[in-house]
Amino acid sequence: MATLQVLGSRQTPAARTNQGCVAHIDGASKSYGPVQALVDFNFEVRAGELVALLGPNGAGKTTAIKLLLGLAIPSRGKVSVFEGDPASTVTHTRVGAMLQVGRVPETLKVWEHIDLFSSYYPNPLPLAETLAIAGLEDLRNRKFGVLSSGQKQRVLFALAICGNPDLLFLDEPTVGLDVEARHLLWDEIRKLVARGKTVVLTTHYLEEADALADRVGVINKGTIIAEGTPAEIKSRTAGKKIRCITQLSPAVIKEMPGVSGVQQDRGAVVIHTSSAEEVLRGLLRLDSEISGIEVSSAGLEEAFLELTRESN
Amino acid sequence: MATASTAINSATNLPQPNVLRIYYKEAKYEFLKSLRYPMYSVSTMLFPVMFYVLFGLVMGKQMIGGIRTTVYLLAAYGTFGVMGASLFATAAGLASERRLGWLQVKRASPMPPFAYFVAKAVMSLIFSGIVVLLLFLLGILFGGVQLPAITLAKLWLTLVAGSLPFFAMGLAIGYFAEPTSAPAVINIFYLPMSFCSGLWMPFIFLPKFIQKIALFLPPYHLSQLALNLIGAGQGGPSSGHWQALAGFTLLCLGVARWGHQRDQKANG
Questions:
Q1: pTM for the complete prediction?
Q2: 3-class secondary-structure state, position B209
Q3: A261, A273, B183, B230: least buried by Cβ within 10 Å?
Q4: Are A105 and B101 in contact (CB < 8 Å)?
């Protein structure tokens, strides 16, 4: 939650919505042979926001990013970035991208990779600044091939930001990173947004979308199935979770008014409900020995599971 | 709203990056990348040089077609070296970069698409230039090669320019080979073509039917161009050989273009 406050303090939501839209996909469909990657897909990116595309593997997130980068052409529908062709070099001078890549030339040094990519852009960041943002100062003279997977991800991140682009696409940026490296990268992504950059991020980590995004598009089977702030997405499910240790059998609890689901979780039960207070009163009345009561909001994870279940 | 969105969306008045500088850096790093990859740099240099030392300096006491073996083999192994340098770097590099995502990262950047290919061509030229130079040095220092400077210069330029058809062939192979199989596919073309074109054994010693096949092979035409310069060609004007090489280059570029379009379709 601290994160969202940090993001909120930089701009009011009203200021943000006034800045207009920098990229959009209108009714795009895309199939690879028999596989429908995107189906009538609509999505827009607003200036200065960090928007996350959240979905399971194979949902179509990467395809959406490819459309926005002009790496793929939709079978139907329209894509535009900065009111132009997403594939054009002029558009690309304002865009940075971190893609999932199998192999990067291994014999070039970190600074050499950055030097080359910086040369593509009209207004690149100074090399030292790119190295600092990506945390690569100590690794600048290492060859790419000898880096750890987390360090490699940081180089790819550096290549995405070195041109000082207005719009950044980060496709699963923290995949394969350990917790510490992931949090470091999150900090850097937040700093970019604080500097006025627009960021589109794909992830299948719910925690990541929750921690970073102003807005989340939940994607499954090639369509957006829900869109809104992380809080809005969460509120679309049945509100609260109650965890407690009780003598009551799950069958009894399930019959109580307002209960939408009950699960056994080790020694405790987890009750899903839309009216926590009413259920709590009932539980206390029926079981005087009840203990270990915790009440929490359903997380993005529950919301996500519920949304994808609906759309399946 | 209107003004804000124009400010956001105006890309036209941005300063553009220096295109020549991009081409320069792309070529420089393409070269460094390959140079530091010993599997490539050592083997492309090593094999022609090793063959030249063995068959030219150690065993080559006799004459071939009235000229010293060491002189004759400059043309033959020069062609062999130029071919290897261009084919391996271009085809293996392209196959791996297009299949394993790196080309896509480049395409998502504002790199001028042409720069990628020009860099590979320049790298082929540079490596070819080095290989031929090494052979010249060996020949002059240890093989008693005595050619006028102007002939050496012409020979060098011909061989180095002759790397371009093989660069084009490398592109064509690179667009259809898998990263793991690329070196094998290259050898399937490289070694038999070299043999049939008379790069390993003087052309006149080859069986008649192979001599006929050779007329359709680009290394034959390049080696004949080189041999013509030192007075040991099979006869026939150089212009015919240049035309054959130009035709072959266009054919390969056509195949590469087809592969490129096939990729675009598969990806997007």
A1: 0.83
A2: helix
A3: A261
A4: no
